Amino acid sequence: MEANLLNQSLRLPNGGVLRNRLAKAAMSEALATYGNRPTEALVELYRRWGSSGLGLIITGNVMIDRRALGEPGNVVIEDESDLPVLTRWAQAATAQGAALWAQLNHPGKQSPKGLNAVNLAPSAVPFRQDMAAFFETPREATTAEIQDIIERFGRAAAICKKAGFSGVQIHAAHGYLINQFLSPHHNRRDDAWGGTPEKRRRFVLDVYAEIRRQVGASFPVGIKLNSADFQRGGFTEEESLDTIRALADAGIDLIEVSGGTYEAPAMSGIMQETRKASTAAREAYFLGFAEKARGATQVPLMVTGGFRTAAGMNAALHSGALDVVGLARLLAIDPDAPASLLQGRDSAQHVRPISSGLKAIDRMGLMEIVWYTRQLRRIGKGKAPRPDESGLAAFLKSVIASGWGTFRTKRLRARA
Ligand SMILES: Cc1cc2nc3c(=O)[nH]c(=O)nc-3n(C[C@H](O)[C@H](O)[C@H](O)COP(=O)(O)O)c2cc1C
């Protein structure tokens, strides 16, 4: 049997070391309070993952502006008021040797109707027609608002560092604000922030530079980037490769490759059902792009999406196209999977398609998020996940909880 490459350590460009090649990719936990403060459930969930043997643990997306949530229950970091819980969260995840990076995000237009008073985006481009009932057309951000958001990314990163997180990851994928700036479909500006690929890249590069300015040279800063948006007129592979080169020149430590948006959810594999047999034979969705990215940069690459077996992960590492294997859904139904995988054994659990049985709901691509979030909530309460739970029941319970969460979030904000 070939060596299990998952066990090799990895040195990052700025000097940090990951103890092995297995990473937990971001999964939004929705476990904050309605006032968006971190909770003990998060501490418990990350204690569990922290003891599984993972080299790197990336948190679910953490928002940088209380006025710009992606969903009820997001953690928001804008000041030091939650430093004690953030510190406990960092300790729980890192106590046994894993690195913990906070994923920092701004949703831009990708936020359900009614949650935020205003949704900002590069341009006022409406959603796909069948989604317009759930997501409203955003307002174009002013230059002052753009500058404020950039500073907020930096401030949140500095607070994470102070709390004991080992690094941060910029969320530039999956259709959120940074991805919107990169996309010619969403970014129709003709000022300094749009109009050419270079100008569309300026926002992400400024966010990176501001974070680096606030955390210093040796604190790991990574990014999650789309290989492409899988949407007509969206961010292309070519622009993604150019963005990777620019980020590498700027000093980024780790680039995680993913793809898709809410309007075209490639990240969960839905778009890959029609993929070529040669690609289907390999587990991961974005390996072909990773090979191209490897040709463009020496910066460590992480690929997330589709990895299930120790053999599949090792084959991908052997190919040399990537350095870190990202896992999401498997770790929500089997938080101990890394212990087996690092010994070359597969998890006993299988990631299966989650369906509500109702086409209109499944097409939105949110079904999986809803179902897996419920599993994370169970682990956060100290319970075992329920891999057999029905999709429709989970969906209905979550719609009620999300409606209630939106109502409570808005009421709390009205009182503040
Ligand atoms: C419940 C859930 C929440 C997610 N939240 C995030 C998130 O906050 N940030 C992010 O970059 N990706 C998020 N993702 C996408 C995952 O990181 C990952 O890219 C995707 O699930 C594919 O990997 P997998 O096949 O190993 O699950 C989420 C996925 C799930 C299932």
UniProtKB/TrEMBL annotation:
Which organism is the protein's source? Roseateles terrae
InterPro entries recorded for this chain?
Aldolase_TIM, NADH_flavin_oxidoreductase, OxRdtase_FMN_N
Q: Which SUPFAM superfamilies match?
A: FMN-linked oxidoreductases (SSF51395)
Boundaries of each NADH:flavin oxidoreductase/NADH oxidase N-terminal domain copy?
18-345
**Which of UniProt's keywords are assigned here?**
Flavoprotein, Oxidoreductase
Q: Which PANTHER family match?
A: BINDING OXIDOREDUCTASE, PUTATIVE (AFU_ORTHOLOGUE AFUA_2G08260)-RELATED
Organism's domain of life? Bacteria
Write out the transmembrane intervals.
none
Pfam (any one): Oxidored_FMN
Return the protein name: 2,4-dienoyl-CoA reductase-like NADH-dependent reductase (Old Yellow Enzyme family)
